[in-house]
Amino acid sequence: MEASIFEYHKEEDTVDIESFQGEKQKLIQPSSLKDPKLEKLKEALVCWINSTLKLEHIVVQSLEEDLYDGLVLNHLLSTLAGVHLSVEEMALTSTAQIHKLEVVLKELDKRLGLQDSSQIKWNVKLIHNKDLLATIHLLVAMVRCFQPELDLPPNVKVEVVVVEVSRSGIKSDVQTEVLTLERNAGSESLSNTEGEEPIEQLLKLEAHKVNTVKQAILHFVNQNMSTMGLQVADMDKQFSDGVILLLLIGQLEGFFIPLCDFNLTPVNPSEMLHNVTLALDLLNDTGLQVSSVEPQDIVSQDIAATLKVLYALFKKHKGKK
Fold first, then answer.
1. What is the average pLDDT score of the chain?
2. Nearest to 295 by CA among 239, 249, 253
3. Which residues contact 92 (CB under 8 A, 6 or more apart)?
4. Cα-atom radius of gyration of the chain, to the nearest Å?
5. C-alpha neighbours within 13 Å on the C-beta side of residue 43
6. How far, in Å, CA of 146 to CA of 140, rounded?
């Protein structure tokens, strides 16, 4: 009887090495799993998820066990970005879960501004296999994009074993994986240097970093416009006629702009210019001055000028409800 049980397990545990050739797998070292910094990061992410999805009555207890089927990630995407995907609510089979993850992660990667696959440290297979490292990388990226003011534990690193299978055998290497950076580290700090505005420094960073901040500002805009039944999808174009900018300023500053003072449906550049000029004048009246931005810059869809205005509003109002 013992022999038959042994043979059964031996057959089940047989692995087809060829199917894994060319793949690299990262496994967190057991010693790093017990690191207090990693535990604090995990706790912070669980707390963030639960507070974000409180109204959805969704409670997460384990990052490894509760995110693999796509349900929580789909609700986070819906709540944080206002994106409602056509996927089944409860995916019970493995095939259904993988399909749901494919749809959700594709949209998430787009919202996170990650067009270069080399920047993406997660995929459907890893998330569905309950890979803790990939799951944390994904959640940290979501926090940085959708709620950058949230303070995650800084400078969290883990030791990982990188395993690579090839025809010549199995290679392994130990590396350090960075999960969160030090506070105000490197050139990503938005503190003023040499008289430059923070947004001007930001615009000099790599495109994907600029895109991350754009998504955070866009989320802030849509949060405040949702009560009016409006949503911005294209920041580069939708502010050029001044209408949404005026409505946003009124919403944030708490005053009503009479419809007779601006063109609600501008049909030519002159009417657009009137709207944007009024918007910038209103900002000046509230003490929020945006340097080196002319009304024509916004009308001509100069994204740098548009970002300066929106960033000023974001910086002033982001902590208010």
1. 81
2. 239
3. none
4. 24
5. 7
6. 10
Fill in the amino acid letter for 100: K
CA distance 118 to 115: 9
129 confidence band (pLDDT: 50, 70, 90): very high
Structure tokens at 88: 């089944």
Q: Residue 191 corresponds to which amino acid?
A: S
Print burial letters for 103-113: b (CB count within 10 Å at least 16), e (below 16): bbbebbbebbb
pTM: 0.55
- Compute φ and ψ for 270, nearest 5 degrees: -65, -45
The token pair that represents 26 in the structure block? 């990262």
Whether 43 and 153 have beta carbons less than 8 Å apart is answered as no
Both tokens of 11, joined, read: 């057959």
**CB 71, CB 93: distance < 8 Å:** no
Separation CA 17–CA 14 (nearest Å):
9
HSE, side-chain direction, 13 A CA sphere, residue 27: 9
2 burial class (0-12, 13-18, 19+ CB within 10 angstroms)?
exposed
26 φ/ψ angles, rounded to the nearest 5 degrees: -110, 125
Give the CA distances from residue 185 to residues 35, 138, 191, 236, in Å, rounded to whole numbers and listed in that order: 22, 20, 11, 29
- Nearest Cα to Cα of residue 142 among 99, 206, 78: 78
63 token code pair: 């990052």
Which two three-digit tokens encode residue 69? Answer: 């089927």
Residues of the chain above pLDDT 70, percent: 79
Q: Which residues partner with 174 through β-bridges? A: 161
Q: CB–CB of 142/72 below 8 Å?
A: no
